[in-house]
Amino acid sequence: MCRHLGYIGPPVRVGDMVTLGSHSLHTQAWAPRDMRHGGTINADGFGVAWWRVGADDTVTASRYRNAAPIWTDPAVDEVLPQLESAAVLAAVRSATVGMPVERSACAPFTRDRWAFSHNGVVPDWRRTLTGVAEEFALIAAELGAEDLFTPARLLEAESATDAATLWVLLCDLLATGAPDGEWSAAPAALRLLVSAILDRAPEARLNLLLSDGAQLWATTCHHSLSVLVTDDFALVSSEPFDDDPRWRSIPDRSLVSARPGALSVDALL
Ligand code: GLN
Fold first, then answer.
1. Cα of 97 from ligand 1 centre, angstroms
2. Taking the CB of residue 57, how many other CB atoms lie within 10 A of it?
3. Which terminus in the chain has less CB density within 10 A, N or C?
4. How far, in Å, from the CA of 120 to the mean position of ligand 1?
5. Strand partners of residue 216
6. Which residue in 121, 137, 265 sits closest to 202, CA to CA?
């Protein structure tokens, strides 16, 4: 179990999204309320992504990560509040048994404008995800994309963890989907990934969180998730970080799409 959070809305101080509220992500690291048999505390590091717009209008996700417990890192109070962004994706980690505790294993995983986090576990992850990659490689080859889902791609995972490997697979799915800028690619990619994994490992726990800086997508598969969406902002969080009555708990096996003024919660499978 880990805890993760996504925000889209008016620019905020990036550090605030980690520390805001009586039950902030910072607090959820050592006193989570809803772990669902997935560990006790989230002391194996943390990470935060924010978005920058370049001179050529290219949107890029940047990040800061540390493998130490979030409450030991002074950057949370001294550096992250100096950054402003209209989108934030953050996570605190409880490493799955057998997986390394290192900076490169901490979410968010990023590429171009995308940032990603995984709360859960893929049973027998090497065999399971290799099987998924082989299945997807056949489809990609028919589409002329022989370089996707290959063993070489899997070896590009930043860390030897299920989460880092999921990110490689999701990036390749996003690359095979609709052209850049088409939001519809993300829900389809998440659905394909979750269902291919559950086919092989029905006990898999797959709360995924993805953002391109303009919209949030999330899945629930075993772990908790809540959303709070108004006309001004959208929040997706493993646990509500304050007692605002507008937080809405998401049922298991859902696919959430959220941005300011728009929320959809659909069946995942
Ligand atoms: N399995 C992932 C990891 O080890 C996520 C862990 C979790 O959700 N606790 O990083």
1. 9
2. 6
3. C
4. 5
5. 211, 258
6. 121
Give how far the C-alpha of residue 193 lies from the chain's centroid of Cα atoms, to the nearest Å.
13
Query: What pLDDT does 36 receive?
Result: 79
Best residue among 4, 41, 99 to mutate for probing ligand 1, ranked by most atoms within 8 Å of CB: 99
> 258: part of which helix (H) or strand (E)?
strand 254-259
Question: Which residues make Cβ contacts (< 8 Å) with residue 126, sequence separation at least 6?
Answer: none
Residue 237 has pLDDT above 90, yes or no: yes
Cα-Cα-Cα-Cα torsion 154, 156, 158, 159, nearest 10 degrees, comes to 50
pLDDT digits (tens, 9 = 90+) for 138-163: 989 988 889 999 999 999 999 999 99
According to the model, what pLDDT value does residue 181 have? 45
Amino acid at 172: D
Residue 248 host element (H or E): strand 248-249
Nearest alpha carbon to residue 193 among 128, 113, 258: 128
CB within 6 Å of ligand 1 — which residues? Answer: 1-2, 38-39, 93-96, 99, 105, 118-121, 161-163
Are 61 and 11 within 8 A, CB to CB?
Answer: no
Tell me the percentage of the chain whose pLDDT exceeds 90. Answer: 90
- By residue count, the chain amounts to 269
Q: What angle do CA 42, 223, 126 make, to 5 degrees?
A: 80
Q: Which residue carries 């962004």 as its tokens? A: 85
Third-level CATH fold of 3-267: Glutamine Phosphoribosylpyrophosphate, subunit 1, domain 1 (3.60.20)
Residues annotated catalytic, as ranges: 2
pLDDT at res. 182? 46
Q: Which of 11-15, 43-47, 176-180, 221-225 has the lowest mean pLDDT?
A: 176-180
